[in-house]
Specification:
alpha/beta, Polyamine Oxidase, Chain A, domain 2, about 475 residues, FAD/NAD(P)-binding domain, single chain, 15 helices
């Protein structure tokens, strides 16, 4: 007989949510986590100087259309910090020319270029919110096009294409030529449209942060589970189904656990580190083998004071040149925790990663000075150190962040809308922030996916009772 009803592989937000729902239904379970902590791609780290935490992983929530994550913030008494949007946005063109423009407006480029970029944004917005976009045969056609090709069919000129590049680099670390139009439109749809996905104001995807750090959500969730149900330092290497239908899950240390069902919450690239007997469905194999991360690094600059505000800037940055693709003020003023979180992405990010540590720091601080029109000497004097994400070195994350997508290859378009997200293999259930239609890539998406996986498993148990 199996030891437990279900094994959940991974103690990120999706895995913890699945476990909580299994617990509520009275099912026995174990959660096997490869790391020495819960939380997956949430990782809140104390500043070296003790002035609060910064997020090396997931950072933003909101209190309106992200109901699950916000309910946990309330349940655990976490303190929300409103994302700063007071002031101007810094913009840099490909030649390195910089200017400031008011938040909520467009950069100060030629009028016809701005009009073209707005037209592209509005077209992508409309397509992402139109259900017909995601139905066949349009679905397959969009998956056979790169997002760059799609933008060109919408009449995108040079500036509009560079703007689209900001979107895809900022969301995935990929250029528009690296991913399919369908893949990006699905992400935009899940965030309630491209405008909301990029918005830092009320109801936007980047509206709120947490003073205590987003890791507090995972630790709070884990505390709701019996202590012996979450096993850390248990990386899973194989999942084997027996003729009886039960599964044996084996860890790196050769520990084995048996269950009726297995809920997998790991990122797609991490599936390559596991052996499945029998093999996964060919479609799932194709997806997990082809899904790939872009180059995406957080370089958090810690400062003595929020010097960028002295020039009327809110800390939001967008650059067509790089290596910083975009940047946000991630300060918590009540803790004297002043920081700019810089996102280094795609080709410029790869070139930057080839530099030594000192050269990386110098280049980013120099770019921040140019963007805000502040002398580099002042920026360097204010600089207190950096905190850098290392997801590309993390095998349990699948060597990347924030989430993986397949290239423009027709894989997503093979299925009807929603089928790939809900697919399962016998009593194997696939969940995680990339396996959800709503808020894909966000903490809310991870929670919704975990809930959906548990619901599938519980529904299958009920169906088996009726047979």
């Amino acid at each position: 007989m199996p030891e437990v009803d279900a094994i959940v592989v991974g103690a990120g937000l999706s895995g913890l949510q699945a476990a909580l729902d299994l617990q509520k239904a009275g099912r026995s379970f174990l959660v096997l986590e490869a790391r020495d902590r819960v939380g997956g791609k949430t990782r809140s780290v104390q500043r070296p100087d003790g002035k609060g935490v910064q997020e090396l992983g997931a950072a933003w929530v909101n209190d309106t259309n992200q109901s699950l994550v916000w309910s946990y913030c309330q349940q655990f008494g976490l303190t929300s910090v409103v994302q700063n949007i007071n002031g101007s946005v810094a913009c840099e063109d490909e030649e390195g020319n910089c200017h400031l423009f008011p938040f909520g407006e467009m950069p100060r480029f030629e009028a016809q270029d701005v009009e073209n970029a707005v037209a592209l944004r509005d077209s992508v917005e409309a397509a992402s919110l139109d259900p017909a976009t995601f139905k066949q045969p349009q679905r397959q056609r969009l998956d056979d096009l790169t997002f760059e090709q799609y933008c060109r069919t919408l009449g995108a000129g040079d500036l509009a294409l560079k703007t689209a590049r900001l979107w895809t680099r900022g969301t995935l670390g990929h250029d528009p030529s690296d991913i399919s139009a369908l893949a990006f439109l699905e992400i935009a749809r899940g965030g309630l449209g491209i405008v909301n996905l990029r918005y830092d104001g009320k109801e936007g995807a980047q509206h709120l942060r947490l003073r205590e750090g987003t890791s507090a959500i995972a630790t709070g969730m884990a505390a709701l589970l019996p202590l012996d149900t979450v096993k850390l330092d248990h990386p899973v290497t194989s999942v084997t189904q027996h003729s009886s239908g039960a599964y044996t899950v084996t860890t790196e240390a050769k520990n084995t656990f048996t269950a009726q069902k297995v809920i997998l919450t790991i990122p797609s690239p991490a599936y390559k580190s596991m052996t499945f007997t029998p093999p996964l469905h060919p479609w799932k194999q194709s997806f997990t083998q082809s899904a790939r991360y872009g180059t995406y690094v957080k370089y958090i600059c810690l400062f003595e004071s929020p010097w960028w505000r002295s020039v009327g800037a809110c800390g939001l940055v967008q650059s067509f040149r790089g290596p910083i693709n975009h940047c946000r003020d991630t300060s918590v003023d009540m803790d004297d925790n002043y920081a700019l979180t810089c996102f280094v992405a795609a080709g410029p990010g790869r070139r930057w990663l080839a530099l030594n540590e000192e050269a990386r720091k110098k280049e980013l601080l120099g770019q921040l000075g140019r963007l805000f029109g502040v002398e580099k000497e002042r920026v360097e004097a204010e600089f207190q150190g950096a905190m850098v994400s290392e997801w590309h070195e993390d095998p349990w994350a699948g060597w990347g962040c924030p989430f993986a997508v397949p290239p423009s290859s027709g894989i997503l378009g093979m299925w009807e809308d929603g089928e790939a997200v809900k697919s399962k293999g016998n009593d194997l259930y696939f969940v995680g922030t990339e396996f959800v239609d709503d808020w894909r890539g966000y903490m809310e998406g991870a929670l919704r996916s975990g809930k959906r996986g548990a619901e599938q498993a519980l529904s299958d148990w009920e169906e088996a009772k009726r047979l």
